[in-house]
């Protein structure tokens, strides 16, 4: 099973790994485009106003441009520890046991505007590039990534649980993946999509799937792992699940 997570805009600083080595990343077939984008971001960082405009940042976020300027020289750390924010707080990788970290390393992957997709322990630097960004001279990231990323993800063996947000799901389709919709139910039984706590609930589900001793290979298996972790999940389609939260 592979659980595809969305990235986060916020990322931890530093790391105890050496500089970025694309050959150390999973999905090596993506390296030509990765290198092209990293080089482009480094070059763009020399023009701070242009970087801010392309990345959708304010002048108070110039430090993000500095991060991009150091992409080839900055220290790295595993992707699971690089990304921060609501989903990753709920995931709680810092509290995983050694055995749980090993399972997570084989089951979790993170979508990335810069790297396409990386596995949990792939060493990456801090960077700033969003899935909705348009790099000058390159067009949309969707147009760049789809031709390379879709074939790479199609080669993944076993069940794929797709927890990506819409922006990152658009970078590459994964036919046959299990999708999860976080919903709440009112007193009349009507359900609606949860937006505010969506990331937190997906983080908890990802933690359950990443650390479970069983490695589900079916939609019903995913639901069983969730239920064992106290997460209410219902199957609503052939490859669709709804995660039911309290109103």
Question: Can you give me a brief rundown of this structure?
Answer:
It comes from Prauserella cavernicola. 37% of the residues lie in helices and 19% in strands.
List the helices and strands and how they pair.
Blueprint lengths: L1 E4 L25 H14 L3 H8 L6 H8 L7 E2 H4 L3 H6 L6 H10 E5 L3 E4 L3 E2 L9 E2 L3 E2 H14 L5 E3 L3 H4 L8 E8 L5 E3 L4 H14 L7 H10 L4 E5 L2 E6 L2
Parallel strand pairs: 1-3, 1-8, 8-9, 9-12
Antiparallel strand pairs: 2-5, 3-4, 6-7, 9-10, 11-12
Helix pairs in contact: 6-9
Protein name: Peroxide stress protein YaaA
GO biological process, one term: response to hydroperoxide
Organism: Prauserella cavernicola
Which features characterize this protein?
eight-stranded mixed beta sheet; 247 residues; YaaA; 10 helices; Peroxide stress protein YaaA; alpha/beta
Explain what you see.
With 247 residues, the protein is α/β, with parallel strands linked by helices. The protein has one domain. Helix content is 37%, strand content 19%. It has ten helices and twelve strands. The chain has helices spanning 31-44, 48-55, 62-69, 79-82, 86-91, 98-107, 141-154, 166-169, 198-211, 219-228, and strands spanning 2-5, 77-78, 108-112, 116-119, 123-124, 134-135, 139-140, 160-162, 178-185, 191-193, 233-237, 240-245. The strands form three sheets. Strands 1, 3, 4, 8, 9, 10, 11 and 12 form an eight-stranded mixed β-sheet that branches. Strands 2-5 form a two-stranded antiparallel ribbon. Helix 6 (98-107) packs across helix 9. The mean pLDDT is 95. One of its GO terms (biological process) is response to hydroperoxide. Pfam families: H2O2_YaaD (PF03883). This is Peroxide stress protein YaaA.
